[in-house]
Fold this protein.
Amino acid sequence: MPAKKGLPVVYEGRRISLRVHQRIFHPVVKTLDGERHILYSDTGEEKEIRYASAEYYGLDDPFNRVSLIRLARAMNCLNCSDESDGERECRVTICRARELYGVDGEEPRWVPFDPGRLESLEEKVSNLRRRVEWRRRVGSS
């Protein structure tokens, strides 16, 4: 019998097999006004996160898995289906917040990937130019 895929979670009284995939982004370095900036370009590729590597993503803790399910459900990024044995299988794709939103934090945060918030590389460069220009104007006052 093949091993079950996914991370086990009990949510709302039901056993769920949570299949988590990481969206792959490629870093692109842009230099504006002598300052280096890293932007991320979507490759369209995903890789499944296995139980052995769940700790890296913070998914070794069952409470973090439940939090991920809640957030993904609120963002409408959770895809669920019922299996024949009564266990539910849910799928969510995650990425780092800085890859999707361009915001750096103290520690990397894994968030559900929302294709609606994905900007093209050209849009990201344009937004970066506006931010750099704004910082220059504000800093020179």
Strands lie at 7-11, 14-32, 35-48, 79-82, 88-96, 110-112. The chain has a mean pLDDT of 86. The first strand starts at residue 7 and ends at 11.
